[in-house]
Amino acid sequence: MESTPTLPIPISYVSGRYLLFSIDAVTYLRREHNICGVLIGTLPQIPQQNVFLGLPLELMPEEARVLVDKDVACIVDEARAHDGMRSLLEEDRRQYLRDLESQGQLATRMLSDRKDQQREQSLKEIDEKKAKGLAAKAAKAAADAQAAASSTSAPTEKEEPNSVFAGEDESSSLSRTTGTSTPAHHQAMGVTPTTSYPPLPHPVSPSAQYLPKPEVPLSYPLFAHLHSRGYFLSPGLRFGCQYVAYPGDPLRFHSHFVVVSAEWDQEMNLMDIVNGGRLGTGVKKGFLLGGPQKRRDEVESEADRIETVRTFSIEWAGM
Amino acid sequence: MASSQQAQSPPLEPSALTRLIASASGNPLAATTIQILHNLQHQHLWTSLEIHDISETSIASDAPPTLISGIPPHRVYTHPDEQLYMLEKGIAEDDLRPERLFVIPTAQGQSWSLRRMAAAFDSLAILELSESEEALSSGESVDPEKAQKLDEYYERKANARETKEWGTRRALLAMTNRGMGGEGTVVYYVVQEGEVKPRQN
């Protein structure tokens, strides 16, 4: 589904974290803006089941900042955005619950429709197969009539798999006549919305107040530089670096670089370059060292630093 | 007894390498350059080694004052896309003419920064301009088919240099061990400007 959420996308700011709760926003940002984030949601009652995580998606401050700088997203104070919850009218509340229930019913109906469709499809296939089998059998019987009686064992063997389906077919053809005409009294599915609008108004409105741009670490210019070159960046803890850079979606590509940022005049130990180069080569990646040529106090905004970024790719020479 | 005998014996002659390094004019960085040049020449069998003084061309005062260049016996670096092209066309590495490669000499414990790295690469650009097209003389083509293949390859390579398809300006960063007794190990890392995808080792 190629749905585009209304822009800018509200990023919820909850106790120092940048979170996304809408699956449409998450897929859109990944598809169109190379932002992956990290899924952090567990089942509330079994948080130790944390191999497959779900919504919400947590963004690094750098990711949130890039999106805000591109006017794709804005930062919303989650607590303040929900002040309206208390003043919600009883009538609105009930209306909202009714909406949820009808959504659940819709989902149930869609599911049962799909089931019916699948069943009809498979029944049709069986019918076709049976017709084909009958035709083949008739042809064979004609041929067999001339043949000797010794060949009778073969057709009975062949009939066996058919008869298994035939039994099922009879029962299902019964339900075909009776089942579809009466609407099934399934219980409506329970819908758990991941966002709070509705019932609250959409948090992005002309009158809304947004939080300032996220505070970012000194490595932000390098992050933004690589992001603008089309790289997907993920947190670098796994490889002992600041970011891991993928040339495309991480589900499809191996990463190219372990990325470390430095300020232009930051003294660095040559041993760190040896470490990075060795580590990168050991995991089939390059070690990317880079940074902006300007200090923060030399420019007006962080955006001016991004243009001055220079990077160096380092690999072990093997000699 | 033994110790008194040793005390009487004449002091050990300094090694050839020590004498070579000591011949540097007291500048520790010059000594590093000489040591790495020595390592390239005798351990890695590089030829046509040269030392380039870049202290005048580089803007930053604390950039490394010298670069080394030489011709390695085998290729040190081949970009993955270039390697693919060579495989497709059936070009072996030994068929290609040797290439001059630059080396940035450093020593462990020396202070380093992005500014210094960038300064080294900037002066490298100037040096490469003056050095380009130095060796077009390896024209002992045996077999015309192969010669044509190689010509195509060199044309493609010149093109790739413009588009940076096959990597960007590159140099070896050489680091020699200085502290802890300085046993003289030198390690080499390929450094390229910009984002160049890694080799598939």
Automatic annotation (TrEMBL), chain A:
The keyword Lyase applies. Keywords: Lyase, tRNA processing. GO terms for biological process: tRNA-type intron splice site recognition and cleavage. The active site is at 246, 254, 285. One of its GO terms (cellular component) is tRNA-intron endonuclease complex. Residues 172-182 have a biased composition (Low complexity). InterPro entries: tRNA_endonuc-like_dom_sf, tRNA_intron_Endo_cat-like_sf, tRNA_intron_Endonuc_cat-like, tRNA_splic, TSEN34, TSEN34_N. GO terms for molecular function: nucleic acid binding; tRNA-intron lyase activity. SUPFAM superfamilies: tRNA-intron endonuclease catalytic domain-like. Residues 9-78 form the TSEN34 N-terminal domain. Residues 219-294 form the tRNA intron endonuclease catalytic domain. The keyword Transmembrane helix does not apply. Belongs to the tRNA-intron endonuclease family. This is tRNA-splicing endonuclease subunit Sen34.
TrEMBL record, chain B:
One of its GO terms (cellular component) is tRNA-intron endonuclease complex. The keyword tRNA processing applies. GO terms for biological process: tRNA-type intron splice site recognition and cleavage. Residues 35-125 form the tRNA-splicing endonuclease subunit Sen15 domain. The keyword Magnesium does not apply. Coiled coil: none annotated. Pfam families: Sen15 (PF09631). One of its GO terms (molecular function) is tRNA-intron lyase activity. InterPro entries: Sen15_fungi, tRNA-endonuc_su_Sen15, tRNA_endonuc-like_dom_sf, tRNA_intron_Endo_cat-like_sf. It comes from the Eukaryota. Keywords: tRNA processing. Belongs to the SEN15 family. This is tRNA-splicing endonuclease subunit Sen15 domain-containing protein. It comes from Penicillium subrubescens.
